[in-house]
Amino acid sequence: MIINILLALIILGIVVFFHELGHFIFAKKVGIKVYTFSIGFGPKIWGVKYKGTLYKLSLIPFGGYVSMAGEEIDDRTGDKNEFASKSLWERFQVIFAGPMTNFILAFLLMWVVLMIGIEEPVDKKSPMEVYVKEGSIAHEIGLETGDEIISVNGKKIGYWHQFLEEVSLTSGKAAIRWKDNDQNKIKINKINFKRDEYTGGVDTEDLGLSPLIKTEIARVEKNSPADNAGIKSGDIITRVNGEKVEYSHEVSNFIKKLNNKKKLSIKVLRNGEIINLNAELKKRKNNNGFYLGVLFNYNIETQVVKYSFFKAFYKGGERFVNWIVKIYDMLKLLVTGSTSVKTISGPVAIVKVTSIFAELGLSSLLNFLSLISLNLGIVNLLPIPIADGGQILFILIEKIKGEPINEKTISIIMQISTLILISLAIFITYNDIIKIIKGVL
Question: What CATH superfamily is the domain 217-286?
Answer without folding.
Answer: PDZ domain (2.30.42.10)
